[in-house]
Amino acid sequence: MPTPHNEANLGDIAKTVIMPGDPLRAKYIAENFLQDYKLVNQVRGMYAYTGTYKGKKLTVMASGMGMPSMGIYSYELYKFYEVENIIRIGSCGGYKPEFKLFDIILADKVFSESSFALTLNNDDCHIIEGNQELNSIIEKVAKETNTHIIKGNTVCTDCFDVYMTDVNKFLERVPSDFNPLGAEMEAFALFYTAKMLNKKSACLMSVVDSKYIKEVATPKERQTGLNSMIKLALESAVF
Fold first, then answer.
1. Is 104 helix (H, G, I), strand (E, B) or coil?
2. Taking the model in full, what pTM does it have?
3. What gap in Å lies between CA 140 and CA 153, rounded to an integer?
4. Distances 216 to 6, 171, 211, 224, 237 between C-alpha atoms, Å
5. Which terminal Cβ of the chain has fewer Cβ within 10 Å, N or C?
6. Whose CA is closest to 202, among 142, 146, 157, 161?
7. Which listed residue (12, 22, 103, 209) is catalytic?
8. Which neighbouring-strand residues pair with 162?
9. What is the per-residue pLDDT across 152-177, written as a single tens digit (0 to 9) for each?
10. Which CATH number does 16-237 carry?
11. 3-class DSSP state for residue 149?
């Protein structure tokens, strides 16, 4: 039962999907963490691999960058492939001076100025939260595996915040009590789509840049330097 953006058949994709933005990160995860994996989608280069992790069937699939791309792929996975859980894993910019490169953030609530919810569902919504059941599992696994995470609110933007002419002007428009830990570009669309379709979603992010951090993660580090976050997502998926 292919869709316009996915050539997989019903049953090819697991009930739980780990979803990085980068197709090459999906490939990296499959090759290094999954057993008996199979490429089940490569339409538009948006790779999806299904295999097993510790004996449980899992799919890892790329979402692409930005809310429109995440909105398409998460909607089709939930609506047409009977996916129940999506855990997004990605990179983010950190907004707190105490953050170090590759610190892991677990999103609680996400704010966006986007019209995504209005356009998709005639809903003037700009704050959405991740699934608390999934977040609780991730927190438990993080504790059991001694993986340090920081849980809190984040923002989801329509453009790379580093390229904004004045990021402080944007931050002034964020609700004053929201106190975002960082910024990325996909979580709002994932969380909203999951809520609309009565599914579950969560988002883990690794800090790869910040005005407080002098080091800059290279493209290769962004692809392969996020193993702690990847392992946390995989362990949470089979918990």
1. strand
2. 0.95
3. 19
4. 34, 22, 10, 14, 30
5. N
6. 142
7. 209
8. none
9. 999 999 999 889 899 999 999 999 99
10. 3.40.50.1580
11. strand
